[in-house]
User: Which sequence fits this backbone?
């Protein structure tokens, strides 16, 4: 494909555009920024029903056409890549419109939908369609997480034995909201790193009250995973601690550590974990990697998506089942069982 790849964005808020203004974030940090930064892509149009969002978008991207209706933008612009960065409750209708319009590639922000029920028809609509979907589970495209993925596959530190994960995103956010927001990333990256589906074994805690949290036990294949998704903290944390037979890896937001098993400097005849790396060097390319993959799909009709609609659906199913377990746990505690 020698001609420019026409792209359009629905939803011109933070993830759609304005995170490019954050001076601390690695760039690109938004869909508009990722499109603009790719040499083969053209940011042709953006749509949002909010006039303030449209005006902010015009300020940042003055040469880009702006619409108040995303479906009208689709009909007029006929983009090759359509980015859905709008509110979650609009995702199913916009994705269905893109499938009906035979848009070649759709990049959809997580979560896929607000519920398994509203997402299920999208799977049926996509069968036999020319459209391919990239769920923006951005860590799949990030160089640091890809490096850990390769470490697991190559067994450079031996077998992966367990994972402990933490998800703290504010003091008062209920765990249910936390799961549907950043929890989608956490559950997806667990699936990506292990290459396994997740099976819930136990859930403790409340998901509906501000500041409460959940302690979730899962199995990724045979690998035990513990996930603490809680409020009550005045700080953010998204982290995974992976334990291997001969090493340890910690990765997360601002975290990249490698520990290797060596002869212990503390105890004769024993081995200890020694930190051999304490940061990721250079950019992770989390958004530019996603965009590069979307362009590759546009150029290669037979190339499969590395983060497809089924991946987004699987995460929704896991969240639904966690919340069901949480409600059951709450009833047991209420009746003293």
Assistant:
């Amino acid at each position: 494909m020698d001609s420019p790849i026409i792209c359009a964005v629905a939803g011109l808020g933070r993830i759609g555009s304005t995170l490019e203004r954050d001076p601390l974030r690695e760039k690109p940090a938004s869909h508009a920024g990722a499109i603009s930064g790719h040499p083969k892509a053209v940011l042709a149009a953006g749509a949002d029903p909010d006039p303030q969002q449209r005006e902010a978008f015009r300020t940042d991207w003055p040469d880009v056409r702006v619409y108040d209706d995303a479906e009208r933008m689709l009909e007029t612009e006929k983009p090759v890549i359509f980015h859905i960065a709008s509110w979650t409750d609009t995702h199913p209708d916009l994705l269905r419109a893109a499938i009906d319009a035979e848009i070649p590639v759709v990049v959809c922000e997580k979560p896929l939908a607000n519920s398994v029920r509203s997402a299920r028809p999208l799977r049926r609509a996509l069968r036999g369609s020319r459209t391919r979907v990239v769920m923006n589970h951005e860590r799949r495209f990030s160089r640091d997480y890809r490096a850990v993925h390769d470490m697991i596959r190559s067994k450079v530190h031996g077998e992966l034995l367990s994972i402990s994960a933490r998800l703290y995103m504010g003091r008062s956010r209920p765990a249910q909201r936390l799961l549907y927001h950043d929890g989608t990333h956490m559950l997806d990256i667990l699936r990506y790193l292990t290459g396994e589906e997740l099976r819930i074994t136990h859930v403790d805690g409340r998901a509906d009250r501000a500041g409460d949290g959940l302690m979730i036990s899962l199995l990724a294949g045979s690998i035990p995973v513990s996930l603490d998704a809680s409020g009550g903290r005045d700080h953010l944390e998204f982290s995974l601690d992976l334990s291997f037979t001969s090493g340890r890896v910690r990765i997360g937001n601002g975290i990249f550590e490698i520990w290797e098993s060596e002869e212990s400097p503390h105890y004769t005849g024993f081995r200890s974990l020694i930190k051999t790396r304490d940061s990721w060097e250079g950019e992770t390319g989390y958004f530019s990697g996603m965009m590069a993959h979307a362009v590759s799909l546009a150029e290669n009709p037979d190339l499969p998506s590395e983060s497809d609609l089924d991946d987004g659906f699987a995460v929704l199913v896991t969240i639904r089942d966690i919340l069901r377990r949480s409600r059951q746990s709450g009833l047991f505690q209420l009746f003293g069982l």
